[in-house]
Amino acid sequence: MPFSSLSDPADLARAYAALEAVWNEVRHSVPEADHERERTKIAYIVASCAPLALDEEDLKQNVLLQYRQSALS
Questions:
Q1: SS3 readout for 3-63
Q2: What is the pLDDT, as a whole number, of residue 58?
Q3: In angstroms, rounded to a whole number, what is the distance separating the alpha carbons of residues 18 and 7?
Q4: Cα–Cα distance between 22 and 63 in angstroms, integer?
Q5: What is the pLDDT of residue 33?
Q6: DSSP state, 4?
C-alpha cells in the first residue's frame, strides 16, 4: 500500500486529494489499458513526496513534475 507510511489523518487526506488531482490531470493522456498501473505509479510518487510537501498544491505540483519526468525516461 503506497500510503501505509502515512499515519496522520491530515497527511492521508492530503495524499488522497493530491492523487485524485494528479490523476484527473493526466488520465486522458494515459491509454486505458495502462490506467491501473499509472494510477498506482502516481500513488507511490505521492507517498514519497508527501512528507516534504508544504500543502496540497505543492504536493500536486511535485508529483506532476516527477511523474512527467519519469514518463520521459
A1: CCCCCCHHHHHHHHHHHHHHHHHHHHHCCHHHHHHHHHHHHHHHHHHHHHCCCHHHHHHHH
A2: 96
A3: 16
A4: 7
A5: 98
A6: T
Instruction: For residues 1 and 44, give the distance between their C-alpha atoms in angstroms, rounded to a whole number.
Output: 8
Question: How far, in Å, CA of 26 to CA of 67, rounded?
Answer: 9
CA distances from 13 to 6, 17, 56, 68 (A): 10, 6, 9, 23
What phi-psi label fits residue 55: left (phi over 0), alpha (psi between -120 and 50 degrees) or beta? Answer: beta
Predicted local distance difference test score (pLDDT) of residue 43: 97
pLDDT tens by residue, the chain, 73 residues: 789 988 888 889 999 999 999 999 999 999 999 999 999 999 999 999 998 899 999 999 999 999 999 988 7
If you search the block for the grid coordinates 495524499, which residue do you land on? 15
